[in-house]
Amino acid sequence: MTSFDQITSIFYIFDCWDQFKKGKRKRKDIQHFEMKVEDHLFKLYTELASETYKHGSYHKFLVFDPKKRHISKAQIRDRLEGVVIRRSILKPFLWGISSLASFESPIWASCIGRLELPS
């Protein structure tokens, strides 16, 4: 199975959704998305399979904690698409390099810095 076949598998997209929503179930945007989750995931599947997927707009807002920050947040379907791509392409590449290669942990990126590229 190629990476493209894996990305365009509806079962894989649902599995990525299960991983993505962990720890976020109480958020309003997740709850709203989950009301029609099948519609959203099948639409994402169709767009990925037909190669017509386009990243949507960002929601911009301010956060004051303790200083003022401008935040741009992608839509849920776009963040989910990122999970699909990372899990299918990067995880097999990084697997075995380090115990930090778990995508459940935000420190997986530190593995990339440890890769030795051929000269």
Summary keywords:
119 residues; mainly alpha; 6 helices
Descriptive account of the structure:
- With 119 residues, the protein is mainly α.
- It has one domain.
- The protein has helices at residues 3-7, 10-20, 28-35, 37-49, 76-94, 109-112; strands at 58-64, 68-74.
- The chain has a two-stranded antiparallel ribbon with strand order 1-2.
- Strand 1 and strand 2 (68-74) form a beta hairpin.
- The longest helix has 19 residues, at 76-94.
- Strand neighbour order, sheet with most strands: 1-2
Strand content: 5-15%
Classify the secondary structure makeup into a structural class: mainly alpha
Radius of gyration: 16 Å
What can be said about this structure in brief?
The protein has helices at 3-7, 10-20, 28-35, 37-49, 76-94, 109-112, and strands at residues 58-64, 68-74.
Task: Compile the SSE list and pairings.
Blueprint: H1 3-7, H2 10-20, H3 28-35, H4 37-49, E1 58-64, E2 68-74, H5 76-94, H6 109-112
Antiparallel strand pairs: 1-2
